[in-house]
Amino acid sequence: MIFVKEIMIVLLLFVLPFLFPLSSFLLPVYKIKQVSKLRPKDRIIINIVVLIILGIITPILMVIYCGFYGIIELLYFYFKPKNIKTFDKIIIIAILSSAIIFLLYTINLDKINGIYNNEILLNKLGSIFKINTEQVKLMLMENSKFFSYTVFLISLTSVFLTYVVLERETYLYWDISYLWLLIFIIAFFVEKFLLINNYYIINMREIGRIIFVLYGMKSIYSCLYLNLNNAKYKFLFHLVAFFITMRFSLIAFLVGAAVAFSKNLLILKKNKD
């Protein structure tokens, strides 16, 4: 059958993130780099066949394929010619793809809540984690409270890695708008000064924080590369930036926020001059 290879690779890359979530960037990268080279008619055939196969398994997979991966691919091409900062593109795509998943979660909330009464599943999870069913229920309920942040984190990481692979030659100069800091600032202000402390505010605060933690990692790499000025150690600079971010996320956040503010202040100063 024609396009069997492409269809099998797309299906494999679609299933892989269910086992290894960090691999979720591989499907949009493959479709943008390889499938996009085919004729429009051929791309449509591949997508229709994939959707039919996923629909036979469960319609939810069709929604994930179109709503998550489809959005990433579509918006990547839409934003490519636009004069928008690269990190802003990444965040916008992550927000929109997360919204689709969150909508799907909300629609299927009754089915998801039914998991708490599924004794067979609870017993299996209990045996895996070596805990009783009540502890499993508590664990699932706690995790569900941070669902928004978790989905955004996966989406942001996926889109970020997609851009790293496809546009790594410009990675050094990726910028971000400092206005994204308002997400964190508003949540922090509401939590600390208005004493409103619920999971919506916590999710909002963590979403705002992780944006600048990730940008901080990129900024640490750029600082090392530009100051030490040695292309031979690019990989080492990436490792150092990654290690600092994983070990000291607060430092990465502060670096990201500071760099974002300083760059935007320089732009404002140049415009005034």
Describe this structure in words.
The structure is a single chain. The chain is an all-alpha fold. 78% of the residues lie in helices and 0% in strands. It contains 13 helices and no strands. α2 crosses α4 (59-79), α3 runs antiparallel to α4 and α10 (181-192) packs across α11 (199-228). The longest helix is centred in the C-terminal third of the chain and has 30 residues, at 199-228. The chain is globular, with a radius of gyration of 21 Å. The termini are far apart. The mean pLDDT is 85.
Approximate shape:
globular
Give the low-pLDDT segments.
none
**Overall pLDDT confidence:** 85
* Helix content range: over 70%
Q: Sheet bearing the most strands, described?
A: none
Q: In sequence order, what are the helices and strands, one letter per element?
A: HHHHHHHHHHHHH
Radius of gyration: 21 Å
Labels describing this entry:
single chain; 273 residues; mainly alpha; globular; 13 helices; 0% strand
Give the topology, please:
Blueprint lengths: L3 H16 L6 H8 L6 H18 L1 H21 L6 H22 L1 H5 L5 H11 L3 H13 L1 H20 L14 H12 L6 H30 L5 H14 L1 H24 L1
Helix pairs in contact: 1-3, 2-4, 2-9, 3-4, 4-5, 5-9, 7-8, 9-11, 10-11, 11-12, 11-13, 12-13
Task: Give the gist of this structure.
The protein has helices at 4-19, 26-33, 40-57, 59-79, 86-107, 109-113, 119-129, 133-145, 147-166, 181-192, 199-228, 234-247, 249-272. By secondary structure, the protein is mainly α. Helix 1 crosses helix 3, helix 7 (119-129) crosses helix 8 (133-145) and helix 12 packs across helix 13.
